[in-house]
Amino acid sequence: MKNAHTIVVKPHITERSVALSYGDPRIQDEKEIVRKYTFIVNIDANKLEIKQAIEAIYNEGKKKNELIEVTSVRTMRIAGKTKRRGRFVGTRPERKKAIITLAKGHVLEDYGI
Fold it and tell me: Regarding the domain delimited by 4-102, which CATH topology (the fold level of the hierarchy) does it fall under?
């Protein structure tokens, strides 16, 4: 069995992913906002493992009414770019990115922002 911390490598923080984590700016009610978070995950992990790992990491030590719920996981594989230095050619490693959608009103407090 895989460890939750080996499945989720790190949060992927960019301008676009931070904007997704704030939700739709047109919705004023905090309980209705749907937030999305982006993570770099293990390249061998599937969507079910990613969902269970996110819930295990962020629900650890919380009360029953404070638990987060992941509603969907979308994944994409990013191929490694070819890089050159003079006559030497190499490639960056492949990686896998997952976009996590939480239930309405749920927030990840320690996402890394």
Answer: Alpha-Beta Plaits (3.30.70)
